[in-house]
Amino acid sequence: MSTPSGSPERPMAAIAPMDHYERLGVERTATEVEITKAYKKLALRYHPDRNLGDAAAAEVFKEISTAYTVLLDPNKRRHYDLSMASPDAANHLESIDLANMGQLGRVFGAMAGKMGIPIPTNIAQETLTKAQEICQLEPGLCEDNPHLLPLKLGVSYSGNVNRQQGAFFFLRVSAEVADMGLALRCASHNKSRFKLVVFDAKGGVRYQEESAKSSRSDKYTTCTLFFTPFEVGSLADRMPLPNPEEELPPVFNRLDTFHMTRRKLERGDHLVCVYGDNFLRGASFALSAAAIPPAAALEAQGRLREADAAILQQRSELRAFQMEYLQARKLWLETQERLAAHTENTAAAVQEREAAIDALVGLSLDACAPPQRSERSVDVQRLMKARERASGNGNGNSNGSAAAADGGGEGGDFSWDTLGKSLGFWGKKSSSSASS
Description:
By secondary structure, the protein is an alpha+beta fold. It has twelve helices and twelve strands. The strands form three sheets. A five-stranded mixed β-sheet has the order 1-3-11-5-6. The chain has a five-stranded antiparallel β-sheet with strand order 2-12-4-8-7. A two-stranded antiparallel sheet has the order 9-10.
């Protein structure tokens, strides 16, 4: 691909697809000011007006414009960052704007959250505008600003914030704390949804993290932002859209958004915000900031690094196991289909055998049955009663009416043939028997 004069040493074609940060040549922790500066520099170089007839330069200009549009919007950038960490980026839900959602939509969103489906949301434009006003209008980002609350190290600040609004705090970071590292932690003991946001000096979103349900207790949600000299993992509570062709168990996507990052807060004043992210009500929170002493916390830091390394290892093993699982599942489904076919064939074979037995026995009965159809069926109960009466008559215990019913008459000789005919087992009563 031909490039205009003054293009970067590495051609744009070598950059991985969809990597907006590399297209602009900035770090993933770049501020909005740094992103804008990089875009303007590249836009000036690759603008079509300066590269007439150069299709390659026009394509590069389109790519950097797309990257700039995504990274300059804090909500699009957050969704993009999480998607980049997942191999199934296209399957993740896009963030929704609650400001444009009606009451019914909010109710459904709240119900989805109750069922454990985390729906990503945008930071409301009203909150973004307020952050810019705090930083750019008098008295600016300082302790005297009436819109700000002080955030002192080691102190826990508990409160409530309305839905889709922010509670803003003023944080001053010394040079010593900036070098040691800092942790911002926010939690909610009524399981509220919230975002923890850090703005840059111009009021643009620099870092943000969503709350997530604690894996150790279902009674609270939590969120922590680390600013350390070493990399720390970040895991967002996102759920990909289900793929009906794969139907993977949730564990395969549980670590998709996990990624290592190194954030840093420079010496100076910073704007911190707890943003209420519930669908129907305000959010309660407890916010604290703590410096991370390098010596006293070596053991804890080592434990965190080991935990992050274990997460990365587990994610790698899950991705390797996913193909094995899908193959095994495919084989299992095929086995289930074969089992269903064998079950159906077995039932059909048994039914066919029973039908064959019925046919054989039926033909045999027809071959040896009495010629009269009425003689081919005998009621066992009636026959037993008849035999009992006949047995009683033979012992001289029957009365005249019983003998008459038996068809023999009083003092007459007993005949099985006469008995059978009188009961209708075969033939009919003779006229002589009836008259007697």
